[in-house]
Amino acid sequence: MEAAVTIWHIPLSEGPTVDDHALLDVAERRRAERFLREGDRRRYVRAHAAMRRILAQEAGCRPDRLVFVAGEYGKPALADGSVRFNLSHSGDHAVLATSVEVEVGIDIEIRAIDTQRIARLVLTDGETKAFAVLPADVQEAAFLRVWTRKEAVLKAVGCGLTLDPRNVEVGLGSVPETPELAGQRWRLCDFTLAPGLEPSPIRFTQPHRDAAFPTNETGASVSQAEASIWPVNALIGCLAANKKIAPVGIRSGAIK
Ligand SMILES: CC(C)(COP(=O)(O)OP(=O)(O)OC[C@H]1O[C@@H](n2cnc3c(N)ncnc32)[C@H](O)[C@@H]1OP(=O)(O)O)[C@@H](O)C(=O)NCCC(=O)NCCS
Predict the structure, then answer these.
(1) Which has the closest alpha carbon to 166: 212, 232, 205, 119?
(2) Is residue 75 domain-shared with residue 116, that is, in the same domain?
(3) What spacing in Å lies between the alpha carbon of 194 and ligand 1's midpoint?
(4) How many domains does the chain have?
(5) I need a surface site. Which of 19, 124, 148, 172 has the fewest CB within 10 A?
(6) Most confident of 50-54, 93-97, 214-218
(7) If we measure between CA atoms, which residue out of 68, 55, 52 comes closest to residue 16?
(8) Domain for residue 49, yes or no?
(9) How far is it, in rounded angstroms, from Cα 201 to Cα 197?
């Protein structure tokens, strides 16, 4: 049986409303006040208000009544555990994964900074070899893919970057590995949000094993077809769950 997970896209280009502010609890308001840049504050308030509305809809309660707790390394959860969720933001976008069945982690990235340097710090030996033989023009997109896979797993587990990403083998191939971590096997599902398509859809990247290039001795590959559909400034994302997940659709999180 495949578990159901929903990914919600939350556009953050518009500023928050008075209603958005009113939904946040004391901790969220304090956190919002600590942002140095006004833009970061506005995106945070917008994302958390949308997250509350979505979770309230899923849990069947009022958005301002939701009570959050934090795990050992800060992973937020609902106090009553009714809905599992995870949030990620990048630029003017946030995504929220929700599920009543499985633990989830999600990550999106809009662009990679200093890809070559960071790759050395986060890739496993096998991933490093596969990365090195990629054509230069697909390396940034490939790095974003592998990085979002790692972060999604680490966020699903809840440890985040307290665990060295070099301990998590997710692969660069079209079909992600299923890493084992914290005693569980994690399933990964890549997705891409194309620019100019706000608020949705996000499409799931399909495996293209037959068109793969280049393949190296580790068997890792990135397909030409896959690389070419990653437009500049696309949002590359990955969802991780501790059970096989159905290829879910992406829904707009801009609900009122
Ligand atoms: C979790 C982490 C990887 C997020 O990295 P990021 O790329 O900057 O951020 P993303 O946008 O993808 O995700 C941020 C969201 O993840 C969630 N989150 C926070 N900590 C988390 C954790 N340990 N595990 C999973 N999700 C977490 C929050 O909802 C957060 O959103 P918010 O800042 O609006 O509340 C990073 O913050 C981390 O490694 N944290 C754990 C270690 C740590 O510093 N803990 C401090 C408290 S003990």
Answers:
(1) 119
(2) no
(3) 24
(4) 2
(5) 19
(6) 50-54
(7) 52
(8) yes
(9) 7
Residue numbers of the domain that contains 82: 6-105
CA of 223 to the centre of ligand 1 (A): 31
User: How many degrees, rounded to 5, is the angle at CA 71 between CA 68 and CA 77?
Assistant: 35
SS3 of 3, please? Answer: strand
| DSSP assigned state of 160 | G
Atom of ligand 1 nearest to the CA of 47: 34
Q: What is the CATH number of the domain that holds 179?
A: 3.90.470
Interstrand relation of 6-11 and 250-252 (parallel, antiparallel or unpaired): parallel
Instruction: State whether 41 and 114 are in the same domain.
Output: no
Which two structure tokens, joined as six digits, stand for 105?
A: 């982690």
For residue 128, what is the enclosing H or E element?
helix 125-132
Which amino acid is present at 112? A
pTM > 0.70: yes or no: yes
> In 3-state terms, what secondary structure has residue 213?
strand
Element (H, E) at 94: strand 93-99
| Claim to verify: residue 93 and residue 145 sit in the same structural domain | no
CA angle (52 as vertex; 51, 58 as ends), nearest 5:
90
Nearest residue to 194 (alpha-carbon basis) of 186, 209, 204, 184: 204
Q: Which atom belonging to ligand 1 lies closest to the Cα atom of 73? A: 48
pLDDT tens digit sequence for 78-137: 999 999 999 999 988 888 999 998 999 999 998 767 888 999 999 999 999 999 999 888
Count of alpha carbons within 13 Å of 249, Cβ hemisphere only?
Answer: 6
Nearest CA to ligand 1 atom 13: 88
> How far is residue 180's CA from residue 10's CA, in Å, rounded to a whole number?
30
In a domain, 256, yes or no: no
Using the mean position of ligand 1's atoms as its centre, give its distance from the Cα of residue 132 in Å: 29
